[in-house]
Design brief:
mainly alpha, Growth Hormone, Chain: A, 394 residues
Length: 394
């Protein structure tokens, strides 16, 4: 049975879930509703803790009830979280929104990529992942353009439009065809333990996942939350922030060049360059409040992050050699979320003390990630867990 029809549905859902209209002013939105930066980081940490707790149970449940059903439930919760965000006012409501979001995100984690991987086949998987990522970026571009041209400082309107896009994405999930074979009546007790042992014994993969997580979470905190405070520090107007966000989203399309650049530069050298660029960008942001430095630093960090993403998605899926694909991928996400929790809390707390302190800390964390990355590769080629055979570009 062909599952190719799942691909356009997943791509359309990615566009709609990328349409976060409040993205350019996500921090300002929360601050206007009475939430401080440190409270934002506290809420993020609660969300990450829930993600750690729910990742593996969700993965095991997905392997039991099927990927389509899991995605339907998760997209429905995602929709509800956006409704709560739209009406949220104060710490408690934003906390509730993030709790619902954590349940939704962990349900989707590994399931969306599994559907893409099984629907496209191994040969076309990287192409499908590239299109899926770019569709999400197209959604961000559309939302950023609408924000810059029409929304301006009407934060609540941005929240309402996001509710509509996520509701439509949840409805589209009904059109998916199940790709997961029927689960056995009983799961062998040692299956989960075997998967966990396999991950814990792969020392180089553990170091690599930890290093990448340091970069990912630092980039997320800086480009999504702290960047807006940096723009205010640099005297950039809110409407201009929408344009910058639009450009930053365009930079995300650089991920399509990742395979070609990796083959030309070499995996280890290219990864080192990306980590170093991100660390240097954060250091520049910490040292300067000038507008051009602020914009350039955020764009460089975003570009470095985007170039690392296609490698992670295809590599983790190609590593899985079990029918319990969602469970195996959830274990990887569990480790990365465990690293992200202290990073998020530290950066948020430092930002409430002094913004340059937080940005300098982000630079240090990227440097630590670089050290782990180099140790993981050990001067040779990338370990099998994250090695990708060259293939045509998207």
């Amino acid at each position: 049975m062909s599952f190719k029809r799942n691909l356009p549905v997943m791509y359309a859902m990615a566009v709609l879930q990328g349409m976060i209209f409040y993205g350019p002013i996500a921090t300002l939105y929360r601050k206007a509703a009475g939430v401080s930066v440190f409270q934002i980081s506290q809420i993020e940490v609660v969300s990450l803790i829930l993600c750690v707790a729910l990742e593996v149970p969700w993965g095991m449940l997905a392997d039991r009830i099927g990927y389509k059903r899991t995605l339907l439930i998760s997209c429905g919760l995602y929709f509800v979280s956006k409704i709560v965000f739209w009406r949220a006012d104060g710490y408690l409501m934003f906390l509730i929104e993030r709790v619902i979001l954590a349940v939704a995100v962990t349900g989707i984690s590994g399931v969306d990529t599994s559907i893409l991987y099984l629907s496209s086949g191994e040969v076309g998987a990287r192409r499908a992942f590239g299109i899926y990522n770019n569709c999400n970026i197209i959604g961000l571009l559309l939302a950023s353009g609408v924000y810059a041209l029409f929304i301006g400082e009407d934060y609540r309107l941005a929240g309402l439009l996001t509710v509509f896009s996520y509701g439509l994405a949840a409805a589209l999930a009904l059109l998916l065809r199940e790709v997961k074979p029927d689960a056995p009546a009983r799961r062998a007790p040692g299956d989960f333990a075997r998967l966990l042992r396999g991950l814990l014994r792969d020392r180089r993969l553990l170091m690599l996942l930890a290093g990448v997580s340091l970069l990912n979470e630092s980039q997320q905190m800086v480009t999504v939350f702290l960047s807006q405070l940096q723009y205010v520090r640099a005297g950039i107007a809110p409407r201009a922030m929408g344009v910058i966000y639009l450009v930053m989203t365009l930079v995300g399309l650089l991920g399509g060049l990742s395979d070609r650049l990796t083959r030309r530069v070499g995996q280890r050298r290219f990864g080192v360059v990306l980590f170093a660029l991100c660390a240097a960008a954060f250091a520049a942001l910490a040292a300067s409040g000038q507008a051009w430095v602020s914009v350039a630093g955020v764009l460089v960090a975003r570009g470095s992050f985007s170039l690392l993403q296609p490698l992670q998605m295809e590599a983790q899926n190609s590593r899985v050699h079990t029918g319990d694909r969602a469970t195996a991928l959830s274990l990887n996400a569990l480790l990365m979320n465990g690293v992200a929790i202290p990073v998020n809390l530290a950066l948020g707390g430092a930002a409430d003390v002094r913004l340059p302190l937080s940005l300098g800390l982000a630079a240090g964390l990227c440097a630590a990630g670089l050290w782990l990355f180099r140790r993981a590769l050990g001067g040779a080629r990338m370990p099998d867990a994250l090695y990708v055979e060259p293939e045509h570009l998207l």
